[in-house]
Structure formats: structure tokens, C-alpha cells
Amino acid sequence: MQIPLFDKPIDNLLPFDGEVQFMPEFFNQAECSNYLHHLKTVIQWKQEPIFLFGKQIMQPRLTAYCGDKDRPYGYSGITMETQPWYPFMQEIRAKVESAASLKFNGVLLNYYRHGQDSMGWHRDNEKELGVNPVIASVSFGAERNFQFRHYTNKKELRSIVLNNGSLLLMKGATNHHWEHQLPKSKKINGERINLTFRMVLS
Maximum CA pair distance of the chain? Predict the structure, then answer.
């Protein structure tokens, strides 16, 4: 099946059961260069182990978490160590909150060092995120292909190229009905850092 590919703004990337908006030039190139530098040098990155099908493996990427002190976050058996809202992270958060018309108290960061770093199929549906969570995903660095797959009808697929400085908003029932992934790519040599802002409930 041919996967529809979007590379420009569109009201909704999903045909049904969710809402995804894409803003390809949310940050300008000067902002992207500045923020990528700070993310690489200020953030304390780790490669965490997770359990997959009963086996412990190392995640194929580096991760970190910034957020409010009273709102810890974890997934797949990992409790993330909370780093503070560094000044440059506050700048990014303020701009993202303005676009999303929503406040965020945490951000999960992923550092994809090359094309072999990846993220498998999953939904952001942890109970700490509540019902119909809004996830705001910012990309800095190399372009990567990002895919959606309907949770019950696996033949329903959508794909988009997340470019440097882009913002992707997942809203409504998206994380109930759609999985997403960032697959490996032999064509990618560059690094990408992804910030996924969220509201973590108590």
C-alpha cells in the first residue's frame, strides 16, 4: 500500500479518529542552530534499558527529561530523572505553548545520533497523561521520516518528513487510535533531537 506523504501544512494529517497538525517552519534556521547546540551541550543524556517482550535491551537512542519537580515521568518501566527548565528550554516551551494554546509541565527529549537510532511503534497513552493528551513534538537537526498506523486497522498508514525546526501537534483521540514510530534509515547520517512536550497529571 502506498503511504500518503505530507511535506507542507495541512489541517489534519489523519483521515479519521484523531487530529495531527504540522508546522514545517515553526523555528527559523538561526533558532534551530542555537537550540541544537544547547541541547547537545547542556542536556544530560542517557541510554536507558527497557524491557521488550520480557527481555532487557538498550534503547536505540539517547533520552532525557525536563520538567516541574513535582511531576516525575516514566514509561516502559523507566522513571526518568528530571532535569530543570534551563533558560533556553523555557524559550522553546513558551513558543510551543503559544502555538498549542496549552501549558506543558514536562518534555521528553530523544537524541537520534544517526539513522540507525530509532523509535518503535507505540502510543503516548500513559495514565499520567490523562484522556486525549496533547503532545507537541519539535524537531532540530536531520530530517527523519515519521509514521502513523491505525491501532486496529494496520493497513491505514500515514507518513511525514519532520524537518529541522518543525512542530507536530498530536491532539484529540490520536493516541487512542493511532500508533507512531520513527524507523531506522540507512540514508540518514546526521543527528536529530526531538522534544515532545506534554502535560503530566498528578
Answer: 46
